[in-house]
Amino acid sequence: MKKLFSLYYSNLFLNNRLFIGLAVCVTLFLVGFFFSWLGVIPELVFWVLILLILADILLLYRNSKAIFARRTAPERLSNSDENDLSIFIESRYPFTVQVGIIDEVPRQFQRRDVWFKTSLAPYQQKSITYQLRPTKRGEYDFGDIRVFVRSPLGLISRRFNFTQSEVLPVYPSFLQMRKYELMAISNRLNEVGIKKIPRVGHSLEFEHVKNYVQGDDYRTINWKATARHGSFMVNNYIDEKSQHVYCVIDKSRAMKMPFNGLSLLDYAINATLALSNVALKKEDKAGLITVGEKIGSVIAADRRPTQINRILEVLYKEKTRYLETNMEALYSTIRGVIKQRSLVVFFTNFESLSALQRQMPFLKRIAKFHLLLVVFFENTELLEMSAQPAADVEHIYIKTVAEKFANDKKLIVKELAKYGIQSVLTAPENLTINAINKYLEIKARQKI
């Protein structure tokens, strides 16, 4: 009996309306000391309030399963994207109730505002949708759903607890990957900022002869076939297939720097997943190498349907290391694993020209055997700082240092170009689009 009472008591909460009623009763009793003509009115109001409280308790507690709630979530969450979750709630009360819902989201979000208010008509069902944006990969623990219900009297609230603890993994941005995949299939990449690169000549892969249609290049007219058919016929060429595209991800401490809540490593992982998927859709072979103070994961280039899932599973587990990149080990791995000339996209970060000079000997060796594309990041916070007007001497020093670092990034691009190494200097949030743009440009210009 005591346990049952404790269970009911722990789920009963007093509302503001009850405290207002009690304040009215106290005021009437105080006034009654000075004005005897009030008589029994204070006591009458008090007992009416007690009866309303008992009635409210009876309304809310007469059905032990008067509310049902359930969270609907995807099997996995996409890092750095807005993920849709929903709460289904059903009322089994024969009257309209006011409902407050708390969803215990994982601690990684540091959110205390996942609180929803709504009203439910008798026996009504409702679905409430909200979004969560994770910024770190890993496992996220969701807690219970707690529902607070008020009757039309509104004096007390009853809490319903629904145990729905679950662990959801947060993977690299597969939602972003799917977006670019759909755009690539429908040939609408320009809608998300992917440039259409003009082709500089044809690949060597001839497909077939077809009828001329408006817009075809006159230079592709097959005059022999035209003479035979009596109408213009053109040669149709297709992009070269099965070219090897390797994404190399630097996991050293240089990639730990955060921008908009996301580390440079996570930006590189998201871009790698999207770029690999686009390469596979273009019928190239995609591979992966991760490196820190030692070689991490190595996935040989392939174009099988399961390749993107293999890459996704490896990227999910990658973490930042806190030592320098072992470029000698990277060079040895590339020479051992990649047997033919390939496009090697190296995601890394250089904050100074001296940092580049330490790695330049190995970059030049890699560039002798493969087409090397170095992708590194602008420090957008320093750019903003250098653009602000200086108010005093201290700000002049800060602005000068910021401009110096920003200028070093441009010098790094020139230094790489001097040795025939292509590069992409990009803001973190534009990394995926710029990396795909560069890949399509290289493919169109047949540089591999």
What is the element layout, followed by pairings?
Elements: H1 2-10, E1 12-14, H2 16-34, H3 41-61, E2 67-72, E3 77-78, E4 83-91, E5 97-103, E6 115-120, E7 125-132, E8 138-142, E9 145-150, E10 156-162, E11 166-171, H4 174-185, E12 206-211, H5 223-229, E13 233-237, E14 244-250, E15 258-259, E16 262-263, H6 264-281, E17 285-291, E18 295-302, H7 307-317, H8 327-337, E19 343-347, H9 353-369, E20 371-377, H10 380-387, H11 393-418, E21 422-426, H12 431-444
Parallel strand pairs: 3-11, 14-17, 14-19, 19-20, 20-21
Antiparallel strand pairs: 1-10, 2-4, 4-7, 5-6, 5-9, 8-11, 9-10, 12-13, 15-16, 17-18
Task: Give a nutshell description of this structure.
By secondary structure, this protein is α/β, with parallel strands linked by helices. It has 12 helices and 21 strands. Strands 18-17-14-19-20-21 form a 6-stranded mixed sheet, sandwiched between helices.
How would you characterize the overall build of this protein?
By secondary structure, the chain is an alpha/beta fold. It folds into 4 domains: 60 residues; 105 residues, Immunoglobulin-like (Sandwich); 230 residues, 3-Layer(aba) Sandwich (Rossmann fold); 32 residues, no CATH class. Helix content is 39%, strand content 27%. The protein has 12 helices and 21 strands. The strands form 6 sheets. The chain has a 6-stranded mixed sheet, with helices on both faces. The protein has a 5-stranded antiparallel sheet with strand order 1-10-9-5-6. Strand 17 and strand 18 form a beta hairpin. Helix 4 packs parallel to helix 6, helix 6 runs antiparallel to helix 7 and helix 8 runs parallel beside helix 9. The longest helix has 26 residues. The protein is elongated and about 110 Å long. The protein starts with a helix and ends with a helix.
